[in-house]
Design goal:
Distance between the termini: 39 Å
Structural class: alpha/beta
Order of helices and strands: EHEHEHEHEHEEEEHEHHEE
Strand order of the largest sheet: 2-1-3-4-5
Number of helices: 8
Bound molecules: calcium ion
Length: 236
């Protein structure tokens, strides 16, 4: 079972605890927050695979927070399932309009919730049922912590593994060094930006042993991009 991180944002203690338990039993790793502010702090430290978000929260409502989040490039692809006590069709439409991936009306059965989470994770292309992320012939196994090209295994360090996991779940997008530090190393750690370059160089060297150094591209003056699509031929 892939241990996807699920951020649960719910202000009612009893429901939050219930969701945490249900998710743990299904093999997920839940992280909980009681409001949008707390959830935002968690996002500064870690990138979840999915957010389970209560519509009615004290302070910024779940919907308002989701709308803000979906405007930020690094969170645009982060799947969100909205939870609501109200079942009106209008709410559902509004929820999906702001970019939520699914919508559930309370009360719901734990079984249905888990099924919806799995469906959204699969659709988001992040991870398959075996806990693997695939890009072209590159496979990253989050369960066994293995990275391979075809049947060849690549020897990468834990940091390079995390870097590849981030790249493979965010293909074709350019990230600068500071963004990569935030996403891969975490904002709480102080590391010099050139550390990113060192790891990228190592990663390219490993990929080049398989003739695939083109997977991690330099975007001059900005940062790096992972892409399995062949570049237009311009030297990068
Ligand atoms: Ca609530």
């Amino acid at each position: 079972m892939p241990s996807s991180n699920i951020l649960v944002v719910e202000d009612e203690d009893a429901i939050r605890e219930m969701l945490k338990m249900v998710l743990e039993q299904a093999g997920f790793s839940p992280i909980t927050a009681a409001d949008a502010e707390e959830a935002q702090q968690i996002l500064a430290e870690t990138m979840p695979d999915l957010i389970l978000l209560d519509w009615m929260l004290p302070g910024a409502s779940g919907v308002e927070w989701a709308r803000r989040l979906k405007k930020e490039p690094q969170y645009r692809e982060l799947p969100i399932i909205l939870l609501t006590a109200r079942g009106e069709e209008e709410d559902k439409v509004r929820g999906l309009e702001i970019g939520a991936d699914d919508y559930m009306t309370k009360p719901f059965s734990p079984k249905e919730l888990i099924a919806r989470i799995r469906a959204v994770l699969r659709r988001s292309g992040k991870i398959n049922d075996l806990g693997q992320i695939t890009q072209g012939d590159l496979v990253l196994d989050t369960e066994q912590h293995r990275l391979s090209i075809g049947d060849k295994q690549l020897e990468v360090s834990p940091t390079e593994f995390r870097l590849m996991q981030f790249f493979m779940t965010h293909p074709d997008k350019v990230f600068n060094r500071s963004q990569l530090l935030d996403q891969v190393w975490g904002r709480s750690v102080y590391i010099e930006e050139r550390t990113v370059d060192v790891h990228i160089r190592r990663l390219r060297k490993i990929l080049s042993e398989h003739g695939r150094e083109d997977l991690v591209q330099t975007v001059r003056g900005f940062g790096y991009r992972f892409s399995v699509v062949e570049s237009a031929g311009a030297p990068l």
